[in-house]
Every structure is written in C-alpha cells, then in structure tokens.
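B., you asked whether I could sanity-check this one before it goes into the benchmark set. Here's the sequence:
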Amino acid sequence: MRSKSLALIAVGTGLAVAVTACGANTSGGGGTSDTNTNSGSGGAKVGVILPETATSARWEGFDKPLLDKALRAEGLDPTIQNAQGDVQKFSTLADGMINAGVKVLIIATPNSEIGASVAKRAEAQGIHVIDYDRLNLGGSSKYYVSFDNVKVGELQGQGLVEGLGKLAPGKKPAEVIEIEGAPTDNNATLFTEGQRKVLQPKYDAGDYTLVQSQPIEGWDNQKGGTTFEQILTGNGQKVDGVVAANDGLAGAVITVLKKFGLNGKVPVTGQDATPEGLQAVLRGDQYMTVFKPIDAEAEAAAKLAGALAKNDIAAADALATGVSTDTKNNRQVKSVLLTAQLITKDKVKLVVDEGFVKASEICVPDTQAACTELGIK
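And here's what the prediction gave me:
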C-alpha cells in the first residue's frame, strides 16, 4: 500500500504550525471497534490512542490496522485503543498504558489540553511520546508525525480556482462560501491558512467574493450542512464555489446543493480521498479531494517508535528532520511531515492504484460509467 510517488518528506525548519490539534476526517473505511490490539510478540510495548470514530472513519478503518502492521514490522508489541471523542476516556486509556509499562506512547488527541496532560504524565515515567497527526499545542511531546497541513490547504485552494475556471468561467466576482473544520483543531487552522495563501489574492483583487467563512464545531457534518444551507439561503441561494475542509463536510454541502439543483454546477473541495468523497468526484458533484497516504504516516510513526523504544535518540532525530512550532509554548518540535496530492476526477485511479481504496468501493452503479472511462477496475 505504500506510495512510491508520494514519498515521505520531512519539511525543513521554519515551517510554523499554528493553533490547536488536527483535522478530523481523513480516510475512508469502517468499524468502531475499541478493543485492544495485542501481538504477544515479546517486543517493546507501544501504546496508541486514537481520538474518535463519530466524524471520521479513518481512525479505525485505516490508521488502526496500518499502525498495527507497521509497529509489528518494527518488532514492537502494540496496544491500540480509541477514545471515541471522550477526553476522560482518553486520559483513562493513557493511564492504563502508562501503568502497563509501554516504552512509547503514540497519541492522536481530541484536543491539545488532554494531549498535553497525558504527555506530561507519560514523560514523568520515562515514556517517549509521539504526537500523531495532531500537534498538541502547549504540550511537551518531543516528536510529531503528520502531513504538511498548510500545503493541504493550498491544494484545496488550487482545486477551487481550477474548478471555478471550468464551471464558472469569466464570472467576476465569483461568490465563495467556506465551510471549515473545528476552530479548536490546529490542522483545521492550518488548512485555512493554506487556502488563504491561494484565495486571498483573488478576494483582494475582486475576482472572488467571500460570502462567509464558517468553522464547524467538532467537524460535525450535520451541523456543517445546516450551516451551509443557512448561509446559502441568506445569499439568495447563490454560490459559485464552496471550500469544504474535508470529504465529510463536502458531502453535507452537496446534499444541500442537490436540494437547490446546484450540484455539479458548483465546484466543491474536500480532503481525505474517502470512498464517499471519491464517488462524489466521479459523479461530478465534488470537484476535488486531497489524498493523504496514511500508510506512510503510520510507517513514519512506527519507525520513530522503534528508535525511541531503544532510547536511540540519534536514530529518532535522523528520521524527524523537519520542525514544527508549538505557538503556545513557543518551542520547536522535531517533526516528520508528509506530502499529499490533489485528486480530481482524472486522478482518482491513482488512489486505487496505490491500494488506498478498492475499485469496488468507489465503482458503484452511478459511477460505473466514469470508472470504465478512467480504466478503474
């Protein structure tokens, strides 16, 4: 499943990571299992706590099995749990792993506060902590593994510009609505930062008009759809392009657009290359998504964990050659940051070829013609 073309890259020093923890939705897949993953391999114990399943299927469908596989490949003994969005449960799971004597704790947290608290307790017991996918601002974890999330936002901005050029050529100013991720989520902040690098010059020049930009608490798709409909209705049911921060929110936006007969006429962005998002791209209801190879993220975290389990700091530092800034503590965090890729209809086959999704997951009756045209089978 490992991408050859989307190789792991460590982004160099100077990349500033702003505000709170990560983007919620990421990869398709299913399951809500909360059971331990025990290997009995005899290797060093590693604890992994994932954040939730309610707003994103990625954590159980992709991260859990990929982390399990990658950690075992490093000779480690993983226990993987999901906090189901409950900060108290996250804390309890962490305490259990700390008491069980894990050598490394990998955490993707519901928010920075609980992440910082858990890291402090773990490190007091000599346990190495890796922030996974979400940087915990105000925390103390020495290592961070994620994607270049500002670049992800830039890809979304580029996708919207390209989509408006095709679906609303010559329209000036094009009216844009932005439905963003959780305001407490650092990655959501970074996505918006990246989008604005591309879109702000268009707003400033009068090429586009920003009708409204609205963060959605908890990345709640239902709330995102309701909010979008309110904004759209308040704007006379007019919109030329929609920035949706991920595929879940894009799906909610598309449902509203269908209600007003606008789906397929308005470019909608997304992120995560979920099966549902890719189907929407194939149908033409969603213009683009962002493919983030979670296998590479899991492998990077596992390699770091393998080095740290041996207390080989030099080896860990050789892997984490990038740096991110914890703006709350004004500290530099050694990082591995990965690259992502913009996926439009003509590039959907790449995601299948990488093994990220199966053709059967996206080639359904209303997309089969597009799959055939694109050679997806």
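One thing to flag: The first strand starts at residue 45 and ends at 50. Otherwise nothing jumped out at me.
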